[in-house]
Amino acid sequence: MRINHHRSSQLLSAYLDGELLPAEAAAVQDHLLECAPCRAAYEGLRITKGLLGELPVAEPPAEFWEAVRRPPPTRAVARISWWTPALQRGVLGGLAAALIVLALALVPMIKGTVDRLHAAEIGVDLYVREHALQMSTEPLADRAYLGVITGDSDLVLAGESAHRQAGGR
Amino acid sequence: MIGARLLRTLPAAALIVLFAAGLNLAAQVPAVPPAKILQMALQAPRLVDYEGTKVITVLRNGSMETITVAESHKRPNDMRLEYVSPEDVAGRLIVDNGSTAWHYEPRLNMAFQGPTMQGELLSRDFTLLMRNYRVSALGVEDVIGRQAYVIALDPIKSGVHRQLWVDRSTGTVLRSEERDPTRGVIMSTYFSRISFSLNLPEAYFQFRLPAGARVLKMFTTASESMSPAALQARVRFPVLIPPVLPEGYTFRGGALNQFGSLTSVYLRYSNGGNLISFFEAPAGAIGWPSAGRAIKVGDRPARFVDLGYFRVLIWEQHGLRLTAVGTVPTETLTTVAGQIAAGREQVLVRDVSDLIRSDPATVRRLRGEGLTFPEVARTIVLSQRLGTDLPTTVRFVRGSLTSADLAAQLGMSPHALQEAVRRAMGETPAIPPLPPVLR
């Protein structure tokens, strides 16, 4: 396996840390034997890594730990002290109940409005149908014509279009 | 010579021919009282079977529309209607066996089951027609090759005029015409062909549900009739009874109309030839329709829907939505609507009971039976003068009890009863016109 200069420079850091596959490591090693700039770069990396390893571990100052362990400011505590889990549950429960009550009140109201509008649109047909049915029992009524009226109204009441009739016009 | 003789004999021959023709005409048209012809027409459906093609021309949305239908009838109450035209009703079928009517719509494959469209002929039908219409014979005419008596029914007060062509041999109405004084002919019907005594099979009048057809039951009112008082016990809103109606209209029946969540009280009034229907529902249950045009009843908003043959008036009255449907002039509908009011019934009961010197409880009771105030006054005065109980008098006033039957009950001649009734009516104080209701 052979690699070019550009690829070798990318793999130098991993080669130094021993993270390459054997074939890749062998290829980098072969390139380092032939390429002076890569060898110089490799030396620079090795020295830097060595220097970092020699640095002492920095300890945080004592004030840092005091600050970490200190309780949060009293104002912040005061702001959320009442927001206990029990209260949270109560408020959420109340909200849910209010929503249910609102829904219970709104559903009939909305249904009532929809029914009212629907009744307004079918009302004329409903009443004309009833009138025609009763009129058909009158002795001089023409039942064939009244059949047209009741039939058209049947269609409107069933939700089918009947453009001839009152509500559908 | 021959010419001179011919000139002498020609006038004589012409006279003989005319005389013979006159005799023949007289033989063809025996004088039948018009009331008898009307009675024959009313009874004909119970006595004959027929099958024919009927052409109906009717006023609809300002123009005349023609409907063609194949109509079959088997006595007494079977009916089959197959619509041929116009296009939107072509194929529609109605089969009625006297107790249930089926309406089938082929383009939707839907069948609607509803109440029968056939009424039982009652004596009051004829009584009311004879009371409220002037029946006159206009002669004999030929209709599709058949001789027909022509009679006219002109309302004694106001309303729709009718003309009927009644088949001489069967009594079937071969042709009819209805005229509104303001709009001319609003409906005419005639058979373009008809066959009698066909012995049509029973099966022809039994509805068979086509495969896969959807069935909808359309029974929106109970079949039995209820009085306004009985209806009041069934609903939570006030039931308003018309205080006055055009002369001759009397309470025909009441019912609860139920469709979905909408409950309405339905009161109907008839003069024998026409019907006015009133529907009452809480205004919160039914909005204003988009159809029709806005008008005023008194100073209240209303909507008027002119369907041609039928007219519909919708108005609001103290939280109630009222609807009147009928084939009467618009002014009649608006005048009647203007009289119906919530909250003044007690005042009117008191005023009328003072006027006819009767106790308010009786007036209230008769109102609960659906009687208008003039009918209440007439009933109470007649009951006092004839010595009849109130239920019998109510039946007489409504036409359910004929003059002949009441005379027989009272043991007097019909003529004597007529005189007694005429005198009692003369003594009945006239109910003054009620002021229109203002908001």
Q: What would your notes on this structure say?
A:
The complex is a heterodimer of chains A (169) and B (439). Chain A is mainly alpha-helical. Chain A has two domains: 5-58; 83-157. Chain A contains seven helices and no strands. In chain A, helix 1 (5-16) packs parallel to helix 3, helix 2 packs across helix 3 (36-54) and helix 6 packs antiparallel against helix 7 (143-157). Chain B has 439 residues and is an alpha+beta fold. Chain B is 30% helix and 35% strand. Chain B contains eleven helices and 19 strands. In chain B, the strands form two sheets. Chain B has a twelve-stranded mixed sheet with strand order 7-8-9-10-11-1-2-3-4-5-6-12. A seven-stranded antiparallel sheet of chain B has the order 13-14-15-19-18-17-16, with helices on one face. In chain B, strand 18 and strand 19 (320-326) form a beta hairpin. In chain B, helix 8 (373-386) packs across helix 11 (414-427) and helix 10 (403-410) packs across helix 11. The longest helix of chain B has 27 residues, at 2-28. The N and C termini of chain B lie far apart (93 Å). Mean pLDDT of chain B is 87; it is low at 15-27. Classes of the chains: A mainly alpha (169), B alpha+beta (439). Chains A and B meet through helix 6 and helix 7 of A and strand 1, strand 2, strand 3, strand 6 and helix 3 of B.
Order of helices and strands of chain B: HHEEEEEEHEEEEEEHEEEEEEEHHHHHHH
Give me the number of helical elements of chain A: 7
- What is the CATH homologous superfamily assignment of the largest domain in chain B? Lipoprotein localisation LolA/LolB/LppX
- Envelope shape of chain B: globular
- Overall mean pLDDT of chain B stands at 87
Number of domains of chain B: 3
The name of the CATH topology of the largest domain in chain B is outer membrane lipoprotein receptor (LolB), chain A
Radius of gyration of chain B: 26 Å
Helix/strand-derived category of chain B reads alpha+beta
